[in-house]
Design a protein that fits this description.
Layout lengths: L7 E3 L2 E5 L17 E5 L6 E2 L11 E5 L3 E2 L16
Parallel strand pairs: 2-3, 3-5, 4-6
Antiparallel strand pairs: 1-2
């Protein structure tokens, strides 16, 4: 994913907008994230990112990200997720 706009990452938050390409699989290594906001991706589509190890996630926004497929079942088992 090549950045066309600045990205902000502070501690346990990631925000990105206006990027190109699919959501990178390496995102799954950021297991301590509490907030993830990605929007307005251009380029090829991708599957829902693997967030299964992000037990502390409480806010997840994936808007206009060219995601195909279904929302994984584990999302309903994320105890702290309050905003999807």
């Amino acid at each position: 994913m090549a950045a066309s706009k600045p990205q902000r990452s502070s501690g346990k938050k990631v925000e990105a907008s206006g990027l190109q390409g699919p959501i990178p699989e390496s995102l799954s290594f950021l297991t301590k994230l509490t907030q993830l906001r990605i929007s307005d991706l251009s380029g090829e589509s991708s599957h829902f990112p693997n967030l299964s190890m992000m037990a502390d996630m409480h806010l997840l926004v994936l808007r206009r990200c060219n995601i195909t497929g279904i929302i994984p079942h584990y999302i309903s088992n994320m105890p702290k997720l309050k905003h999807l």
